[in-house]
Structure formats: C-alpha cells, structure tokens
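Here is one chain, start to finish.
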Amino acid sequence: MESFESIQNKLIRAISKSSDREKIFSLWEFWNGKNSNSSVAEPNSFYNSERPMTDEEVEKYFKEEEIVLPDHVIKMIELGMDDVKNGRVYTEEEMDKMDEEWLK
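Its structure:
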C-alpha cells in the first residue's frame, strides 16, 4: 500500500498541474464541508461526461455469470443436503454446549 506522504505529494502535484476549474472548486467545497450532510444522496459529479447508465448498459454490467462448480464440491453439497434431509444435524444449543466443552 502506498504511503500517506506519497499519496499526499501526488495529490498536491495533481492539483498544481490541473487547469480544470470545476474539479478544483469541487475539491475545495468537499474539503471545507460545504457538500457534507447526513442524508443519502448521489455524489456530485466531477465530470461533465458522467451520465446515468442506459438499460442496456445496466443489463451488460450486471449480467449474471454461470458458475460451474467442481464435481467434488457438488458431491459435498449433496452429502450436506442428505444430512439435513435425514436429521443428521445439530441444534444451535447442542453446538454451544460442544463449544463450551471443547474450550475447557
């Protein structure tokens, strides 16, 4: 992880080199707490190009991926489901009692 001083120096250089008035004013307002409140809201955009995603972009971005589990994992899940189905499980109280005995 980068050191605090390194990040601080990079930030100072970026501000010094920037000619983007909107960014500088937004940073100044953020730093001075002018935009801070306890309500939940969308963050102020630093970029004019920021826009809401289209429905197609949302679908593409949040597309569900097919997850393929290895055979040994599927077998373990099936064994666990069989244990539940046949009552080979412990109650929370039984587990707490086992934990207490184990910790003695």
